[in-house]
Amino acid sequence: MNILVIRTHRLGDILQLTPMIGGLKRSYPDSTIYFLTGKDYAPLLEGNPAVDAIIPFPEKEYRYALKNEPDGYPSLFNACHDLIGELRRIRFDLIVNRQYEWGARFASLAGASRIAGGAYSPERGFYFDDQPSQDLVDAIKGDRKKNRRNLVDWACRIAGLPPEGHTRMYLPLGPLDRREAQRLINDSRSDSTRPIVAVQAGAARTFRQWGADNFAEVIDRLIHEKGRRVVLMGSEDERDLFTGRGIGIGGEERNLINLMGETSLKTTGAVLERCEVLITGDTGPMHMAAAVGTPVLSLFFGTAYPWETGPYGYGHFILYADLPCAPCFDPSRCERGHLCKGMITPSVVMAAFETFDAFRRGDPVGWECPDPSVRLFVTSRDTGGEQVLVPPEQLAGGMPERGLCIDDGPDGEYLPAILRARGEEIIRSFMEGESERGFTDFAAYLEEWLALRKTAPSLGDEGLKSTGELINACLEALRSRDTVALIDAIEYGFNPRLEQSSHKSFNANHL
Predict the structure, then answer these.
(1) Residues 221 and 337 in one domain
(2) Under a CB-based contact definition with an 8 Å cutoff, are residues 349 and 299 in contact?
(3) Which of 29, 91, 241, 395: CA 20 to 30 A from 426?
(4) DSSP bridge partners of 126
(5) Are 499 and 507 in contact (CB under 8 A)?
(6) Cβ-count burial of 207 within 10 angstroms (0-12 exposed, 13-18 middle, 19+ buried)?
(7) Rounded mean pLDDT of the chain?
């Protein structure tokens, strides 16, 4: 079975499809899943075990040519014609289109036994043959406040997946990404004993920007009052966003780490993975943090509607300016001076951070705000497995253990394949004489096994020496720099456990 998924732009929207992709692979394990996406966003999918082939599409260049280079229309037409011809030759059984414009036209021209999520014809224009897609359009075009379903869950419904609990979003990271993130943070010479809070202050559109002055006050208080390091994430254009605002002064400049414009997509994810929490608006990095398992404290105002596009997963915090006019469709016509943005003050954000901190520790939590229109929610799941937003006092027990888990998301679902690939890379480093790189990567590899052992202590222990004893032997080999022992540990110790785990998962899934 050949399946094509289409989404060519918007970082967050692509990541929001990763639970759906994983669900498709579970439902159709023998399928080949193709993903048509913008070439700038292809790295988001590289290494995803549920994606068999990525088809990069130069959408930005094509859009620019359509607006500014009419002489290039013939070559543009020929390029699209060739791409559509390649798609038709694959003979798709199912196309899930999660984008209008280009996506609907490509879905129709590529041809498939079934198209879900939107198609196009000259006679009908844009149309939907599946009921969930029509329901979503009706919800967005009607009263958006009546919609209580996240776009991740909508996508899964559109793809025809069973209404069971969907996994979290997934951004695959490799040793190189993590090593570069570690280097950037270590080079800052900040206080390594302090937890790291990430801040994404910029946003693609001005009406989604909370304001540099607001963020500067929050950053200053995080450093001086809460004893945190703060890492600034963003693009090169945003690098000077806080210049002259005096944050981090008073001997604490070293605990402000400015990585704006310094990271690739995957390195951004690896930096976020090392953070205690990300504070941001409704942005692409918000979804990246959720995809790598980092909690988010997100600010929603204006057009942003947390039930639709809020961070997906358990334990993310959302501040929402819940005014009668929210969410709006056109902030440029606001007659209230963007009141929703002003209601979320730095003091409100710090109060929400303190509530998050208490929740993370498992302490009792509550929420009181001078303005009752500013609401604080935590993401959770309903009995059907879909995401819901609830007040923080309704949840107890704190954050789940972070790390790899057998039954929680793609990292767990595809864990044997992921760890096997990392082990092979470590062996290759040792065999090619890159011992220091091998030792560094092996240490990270062991950390993943230690985290896994907490959540699945019986993994691979049946009929074999316990995993704990194997890990202890590896720690001794690391101390003595014994590459042969480490290679043997991967080949004859860890890999057999992964093989055993794969058989267990297969048998459990097919009973």
Answers:
(1) yes
(2) yes
(3) 29
(4) 120
(5) no
(6) middle
(7) 84
**pLDDT at residue 448 is higher than 80:** no
Domain count, the chain: 3
Residue 41: CB atoms within 10 A of its CB come to 23
Asked if residue 13 has pLDDT above 80, the reply is yes
Lowest mean pLDDT among 11-20, 283-292, 389-398, 408-417: 408-417
Give residue 435's domain range. 410-509
Q: What residues pair up with 317 in beta bridges, in sequence order?
A: 297, 378
Task: Please tell me whether residues 248 and 383 are part of one structural domain.
Answer: yes
With the CA atoms of 4, 57, 282 and 22 taken in that order, what torsion angle do they form, in degrees rounded to the nearest 10? Answer: 30
Q: 């082990």: which residue's tokens? A: 423
pTM of the full structure: 0.79
Whether the CB-CB separation of 242 and 232 falls below 8 Å is answered with: yes
Residues 85 and 144 in one domain: yes
The answer to whether residue 399 sits within a structural domain is no
Structure tokens at 463: 């009929």
Please give the backbone phi and psi of residue 348, each rounded to the nearest 5 degrees, phi first: -65, -40
The sign one gets for the Cα dihedral 101, 102, 104, 108 is positive
143 in a structural domain: yes
Q: What contacts 467, CB < 8 A, 6 or more positions away? A: 449, 453, 457, 459, 460, 461, 497
Tens of pLDDT along 45-86?
A: 998 989 999 999 998 888 888 888 888 889 888 999 999 999
CATH number at residue 234: 3.40.50.2000
In order, the DSSP letters of 63-87 are HHHHHH-GGGHHHHHHHHHHHHHHH
Separation of alpha carbons 286 and 16, rounded Å:
11
- Residue 272 burial by CB count (10 A; 0-12/13-18/19+): exposed, middle or buried? buried
Does residue 327 sit in helix, strand or coil? Answer: coil
| CA pseudo-torsion sign 137, 390, 214, 242 | negative
Strand spans (E) along 372-457: 374-381, 387-390
- CA dist list (Å): 476 to 99, 469, 471, 480: 52, 11, 9, 6
Question: Would you say residue 183 lies in a domain?
Answer: yes
Q: Quick one: tokens of 332?
A: 């440029």
pLDDT at 369: 85
Of how many residues is the chain composed?
Answer: 511
User: Of 158, 185, 220, which residue constitutes the final position of a domain?
Assistant: 158
